[in-house]
Amino acid sequence: MAKFHIPKSNRPVPLLEPRIAALTAVMFVIFGLVSVRLYYLQVLHHRENVELADRNRIRIQRVPAPRGLVFDRNHRPLVDTKPSFDAQLVPEDSDNLSLTIERLERYTGAGQIADKISDADDEGRPPYEPVTVAERLGWQQVVALEAHQLELPGVSLQITPARHYLYGELAAHLLGYVGEVTKNDLIQKADYHMGDEIGKFGLERVWESSLRGDAGGQEIEVDSVGRRLRVLKEIADKPGESIVMTIDLNLQQAAEQAMAGKNGAFVALDPRNGDVLAMVSHPAFDPDIFGGGVKASAWRELATDPNHPLQNRVIQGIYPPGSTFKIVDSIAGLEEGTLSPETAYHCPGGLWFGGREYHCWRHQGHGTIELHDAIVRSCDVYFYNVGEKLGVDRIAKWSNQLGLGIKTGIDLDHENPGTIPSSAWKLKRFHERWYPAETLSVAIGQGYVATTPLQMAQVAAQVANGGIRYRPQFVKYVEGLDGNIAKSYPPVIENRIKIDPDALEIVKDAMADVVNGAGGTAHRAHLDNVIVCGKTGTAQVVGSNAPVGESEAEDKTPEQFKDHAWFIAFAPKDHPTIAAACIIEHGGHGGSASAPVIHDVFQRYFQLNPPPPKPEIARVLEDASPSQ
Amino acid sequence: MAGGDRRFILHFDWTLFILVFALAGIGLVSVISASYAGAHRTLDPLVIRQLIWIAAGTVAMLIAVLVDYRALQAYAYPFYLLVIGLLIAVMISGHATGGSRRWINLGAFHLEPSELAKLAVVLVMVRYLRADPPKGGWGLRHLIIPFILLGIPAALVLKQPDLGTGLILVLITLTLIFVSGLNLRTMLVLAMAAMLVAPLSWHYLKPYQRQRLVSFINPQADPLGSGYHIIQSEIAIGAGGPFGKGFLKGTQARLNFLPEQSTDFIFAVFAEEFGLAGALVLLTLYAGVIARGAWIARHARDRFGALLAVGLTAIVFWQVAVNIGMATGMLPVVGITLPLVSYGGSSLIAMMAAMGILISINIRRYLF
């Protein structure tokens, strides 16, 4: 053992030893002080601490801030908050929970309170946390609760600001809705608490940080059964900021009315800056049902509805653009030089290509026609030829330039970019080369082509404004609590294409004649005081028996196989201030189903925003008036 | 290597080993209490995770025992640089919780590099101070490098902001400098400088940190806000009384410390349920670890081992002192875990590894 004996003096740490000893002594002294402190708290002041802990508990009650309001462009309120009286129950504070629940159900007429308690329990909510068991109580119920307070240990009345959508379903997909935070939200967002409301969809979700505000709180002394004894301290909440939207309430109402009872989408933009003036997706839903915890059955009903009311068809619905795509072909052909206004093709009612006949919607044919008439009368054969000359890749290039096949960048979730096929796209998607025959269906907006209504409204807006693609925006500014603009959203230019003004004028003239000229397909969009330009289209529904091309004949196809009806338009022809797209699902054809919607909205728009009287129109009106 | 050597078993530090598991056991019991939500509910996932981390910590501890601690000298700087890198990574892309960025999300595990920073600072500090000081002890000019070595990680954790860990880094550095032989005059100069700097640092504190200091002096000034934790923690501990309310019978701690009841305020949970008696047992166990650490330091075979033992022991001591001091209202609230007891993987594994290194130093005092 001697081998291992190390004499003390040989240790390597002689200098360290006294200091280690001193340090250890200091440490033990500090531990001694801690023990004294513990004795002080746990023995000398035990009694009063027990009293504080058991008899008079201090509860922190968060008071959520009222969310900011939402206004239309003229500062008319669309969404506000109103006080909601909710009953809360702290399970731990009730000695006989089932009796309390029974009484509560009797006094409020509310049901499933026991379920709500056990649901909260399953979510891991501790028994000392209040659970909201009955919402939006009426005055009678509130009075009943107050009168029976003593029989209801653990029950308290909470006044919370609840979201209220003043016009029900109006613009539901834009406004979105709010709901209670989920567990997942709580993990990701530190400053949210169980039971808080959070924007779930649409504007409510995207502008959550502005709308939310800061919660306040109360420190409340409660007795052993959870009755409030007094408020010890209060922190004021800070309400959320308000949002002023670009949509016009009157116009939105007109659009909703025009779309009533139809499935489909409508959107109107200001071609001068990308403002969304109105946006409708039908069927819609009532955002009010989500507030204060959506009822499971109501949610299931919405989520499983075969008509998909929760889908925003304006940005998520993708449809073949049909003949509205001929506008894109025309711009592409004119710009690439493969097409001139004088280019003429003969339409005998169809075209033979690659051993197969491609029909024109007009079986008897259009004869020999030039570009203007081909657009006005929507001749398929003419555009088969235009498409063949261009080739799919040049069509794709110009489609992309105009914003098709890419997201518009609107501040809404789940936007679908749609599809614009090209030879590279097909190779990547199907590992197959592009067949020239496929270009023919692309040229008339069928085949693989898929676009959203918002994208087609942008096409109309670009024709209207000379080729500037603005990002669609539906919020003008965020209004601070002081009433000043806290954040504004100036127009964002996504792309600017150089289109020869003369070429564009040809397209515009033709679109004007689609609505106003002889042989045009959209007379129903005609307005007396304004020149409306437009283009109809028919999106073929898979399974439809109708021939390729635009079928203008009303048939007896069953509803679900009926084609979707498109119409895109802008007005007035010179200095346009509104552009729009509308699709009616299974509406048949654009001229009869969608054009009237745009007619109604445009009519309302020009009532609200009278067009400056153009000299020639003024003259016409003057000439007309004496004779009446 | 000691493999197969009988002395390895003979000198294995069973005392420290048992103390570590006794503390981890108390931690587990406290985490069960803190996450308890009613008799009908199953074990909280928190408890299961804590068990997994104790197991992982045991593995880390045993590995640390097997490694010759002298090898750590070579790894001190690389490890230090790695931790600095991790702290920077946290700053850039860390997982934000409660307004501060402290974690790196590794999927199943959230790594908290500031826990590793304590070990890294101890290692580089000891690596630097292992040299014998000049006659009369370290002077100011010898402290430039240690202060730089402290300054970088301390600045990074303060930036998170993690005031608690920053404070611990400073305290362990000062402890090591003192023990390794700081000369007395320098000690006085440093103390005076600290007193001058303290009021200036007020300006660098975030408003909520200042608020905490104000609350500490007068908790009633802001009972709903920052004074809240102190008041509630004191009530919980005091309500525990001499013998406590009993396991799972505490209500005050569970009721109110929602965000940090299983980490920074775990002591309040334990003291409410097990009273003064339980708290004194806990303090005694820590005192045992500290006494054992000091003994190992005094008997270490080389200066590096001795200082390393002091540094590791200092981590335990300062964290216990600050954590309990804060829970009992003796110190302002800064976030700091109770070693081996608080819920949390990074903290537990780092601490158990540290205990393994202590045992390794003890085993090898006769081996060369």
Describe this structure in words.
The complex is a heterodimer of chains A (628) and B (368). Chain A has 628 residues and is α+β, with helices and mostly antiparallel strands. Helix content of chain A is 36%, strand content 21%. In chain A, strands 2, 3, 4, 5, 10, 18 and 19 form a seven-stranded mixed β-sheet that branches. In chain A, strands 12-11-23-22-21 form a five-stranded antiparallel β-sheet, sandwiched between helices. A three-stranded antiparallel β-sheet of chain A has the order 1-8-9. In chain A, strand 14 and strand 15 form a beta hairpin. In chain A, helix 13 (326-336) crosses helix 16. The longest helix of chain A has 29 residues, at 16-44. The termini of chain A are far apart. Mean pLDDT of chain A is 85; it is low at 1-10, 543-555 and 617-628. By secondary structure, chain B is mainly alpha-helical. Chain B has 14 helices and three strands. Chain B has helices at 6-10, 14-35, 45-66, 72-93, 113-129, 144-159, 163-181, 184-201, 207-217, 227-240, 252-256, 266-299, 303-327, 345-363, and strands spanning 95-97, 100-106, 109-111. Chain B has a three-stranded antiparallel β-sheet, with helices on one face. Chain B is globular. The interface between A and B is large, with 50 and 64 residues.
